[in-house]
Amino acid sequence: MFFEYLDVVTNPFPPSDNSPSNCDVFHIGRIYGFHVFYAPLFGKVIISDSEFRKRILSNKENFEKICAPELGPCGAPPIADKGFTHFGIFPTSECNLKCVYCYARGGESKKILNFEILKKAVEFLNENNSVEKVSVFFHGGGEPTIQFELLKKIKKYVDEELKAEKIFSLQTNGVFSNETRNWIQKNINHVTVSCDGPPYIQDFQRPLRNGGKSSVFVENTIRFFVENFIDINVETVISKFSNERQAEILEYFHKLGVNNVKFNPISERGRCLCSPTEFSTSPGMLSFFKNLLKSMELADIYDVKLAFTGSLDFCKVASCVVASRAFIITPDGFVSPCISVPSRDAEYNELIFGFFDKKENKIKINQKKLEFLQKRTVQNIPKCQNCFMKWHCAGGCAISACLMHGRDIYSPYEGYCRWIRKVGRSVLVYKIKKDLLKTHPFIEEKNGQIIYRGVFNEFELKEFPAKGKEGGSLLEVDVDKLELLTKKIEEQNPRVLLLSFKISKKYLTRETGRKIESFLKSLKEKRVSFVVAKPLPKCLFGEDYQRIIAQFKIPKGCEECIWLYILKDGSFHICGTDKTIPQSKFRSRKDIVEVFKKYNAKPTALFCEECVYKLRGNCAGLCKQMVF
Predict the structure, then answer these.
(1) Which residues contact 318 (CB under 8 A, 6 or more apart)?
(2) pLDDT of residue 468
(3) pLDDT for 120-140, tens place per residue?
(4) Position with higher pLDDT, 448 vs 217
(5) Where is the domain boundary, 14, 44, 79?
(6) What is the mean predicted confidence (pLDDT) over 156-162?
(7) pTM over 0.90
(8) Cα(527)–Cα(623) distance, rounded to whole angstroms?
(9) Which of 135, 237, 363, 382 has its CA 20 to 30 A from that of 455?
(10) Same structural domain for residues 14 and 102?
(11) Of 154, 184, 153, 149, nearest to 170 (Cα)?
(12) CA atoms of 172 and 194, how far apart (whole Å)
């Protein structure tokens, strides 16, 4: 019996004495002849042989008996807090942009939150909330900063009067004055900027209210926040027009220095229904999905965190703040748990559970309705119970997954479910190929071209410097010419740079190691995306070796080298040997490594054989192909 596993969930539920006996183990298909199981509460994906599958499917309790000693404890869904953990404030429905797809029709009304209502909301929370820590966020169907004096007044009051530890966040379009920008820097803990990408997309999809271009303002805002180390996310809405340009959008944000990006397809409601164009229409979900997978892989190369619906970043019991104990006050004084309900006039006012009563001068809550909304956790949605994505999707957005399709909030739309499962399965396949079986990426030679082939992407590599930035560049660097190349690389800045080094024996010194580290650090600072293709010996870095190879993702030895095998004419040709493995029979990098070790006994330079690091097994040595 055989099985291997991989950690895939960044943030699973913590272990608990309340861990369920059946830890939700799902068989989701096969890859390269292996069976694939997913155990989300363990945070792991497992590949196995048929015997393992037979034993697990015959009795789920066998899973814990066989795997628990290796996988560690099973996580358990947390018991929900009884109070409100999120306090949302929508200062206004006014907006200085006129986004072509705006779900809230921002700027078409002039509603402004009455400060006295805000004070009553704080009073209500102080009297009815026992939560020690509250996330306070400014959001809304309009732009929160457009009522700047009110925003400052609200923030100061909440900071002083709300009886809880507070973290402040802001969702903004990024179009505001330097004064506002400086205030945000000093008063807000986390900022999310809405931006749809390069100017030719941003200016068409998110123009100024007067029809002018917004991109220059937003780009300056993003640069300011990045340069001042402000915790910033960028949220991007993908339209039919921008869908095929996802890679370019991601590259644009990467070059700006953004490390956290989220892609969402247009939600077809609000303004986009009035005059649909390719800028205001949602892409087909299959087309969005195909490009999203390519973007996910490219984000890994860029070292950018790309969030999207269906990602496996963490486990959750609720899809959003609807069931996560949110108290959101709208500009017209109504209370909702949903950021997509900007006012009482919204389409989905069944998500409103309270309001400001002018006669009684207080916030009044429909307790029965509140409890109905707060119970919308995945454990209470019948359709979700046998789905392997249940702890990531958690029933989906109450509006997008349910209400837009004429369903109640406890009945997700089947089309949405199929799409989420497709995304989740593809993410697992990606992680298996890249991090568990390690079959990808690899090099292919085809029709005289060299191709860097990932799981979902392929980049034609041309010798540096190459014309155009759509593909990638191939560069072998003499270590004594590093400083001369840095500026040229920055100017070329290819989408992917496959990098390796040529080193002679006399350069195997710590001084050379420091130069290489400085060179790679400079490329990262200039937002050049590179992949170090071949391993570097420990003698270059000494005690800093582990830190440097982790920081720059340098292969540790021949087993991790990108050039270990090359696909030609349907077979993988193994480095330093005359051996090949047909592509149809290739299941794991281990298959290649076994052949490589058997038939290429001495792949490293002869002078490495006398090195103390090599003799002690602390270094694989310098590849003899890198010596000049």
Answers:
(1) 324, 376, 377, 378, 394, 395
(2) 61
(3) 999 999 999 888 999 999 999
(4) 217
(5) 79
(6) 98
(7) yes
(8) 28
(9) 237
(10) no
(11) 184
(12) 6
